[in-house]
Amino acid sequence: MTVNGEEVTRRIEGRLLLVHFLRDQLGLTGTHWGCDTSNCGACVVWLDDEPVKSCTVLAAMAGGHEVRTVEGLELDGELDPVQRGFMACHGLQCGFCTPGMLMTARALLDRNPSPTEQEIRRAVAGQICRCTGYASIVRSVQWAAAEQAGTRTTQGRP
Ligand code: FES
Ligand code: FES
């Protein structure tokens, strides 16, 4: 498979989950392993540009496909607007849910550059944050949307 643009080849057990392959075999620990039951969304990565819960995907199923993790979000040393948005608007507290939130937010903005609050909330509906209460996550995504559109006018707020 290709992971963050680099081709990787490993001999693995058929039962190995993608989340464990990324973390334990490739050392990409930005992808978090939370519930292991497809509920929390901390493990979200992209499989061929589609956000998936990597605890529900066998690593072998990703063979021949493109995987992108949170480590692959920054480009040429510059953080992605969603990463900067989460920093600017305090879209995290403990940070456990954040990698998955970032990957979902990026996918949302790629498809819909100016989502409504309801659309943002729907996009992250499959992900659980125990800390923030979601308001600051929504603001962070709005910040990133405004930043990309060049319409952000005030510090930290869209
Ligand atoms: S660890 Fe995958 S959804 Fe929770
Ligand atoms: S910031 Fe702690 S779970 Fe979301």
From TrEMBL:
Keywords: 2Fe-2S, Iron, Iron-sulfur, Metal-binding, Oxidoreductase. Residues 2-53 form the 2Fe-2S ferredoxin-type domain. Signal peptide: none annotated. Gene3D superfamilies: 3.10.20.30, [2Fe-2S]-binding domain. Residues 69-142 form the [2Fe-2S]-binding domain. InterPro entries: 2Fe-2S-bd, 2Fe-2S-bd_dom_sf, 2Fe-2S_ferredoxin-like_sf, 2Fe-2S_ferredoxin-type, Beta-grasp_dom_sf, Diverse_Oxidoreductases. PANTHER family: OXIDOREDUCTASE WITH IRON-SULFUR SUBUNIT (PTHR44379:SF5). This is (2Fe-2S)-binding protein. It comes from Amycolatopsis ultiminotia.
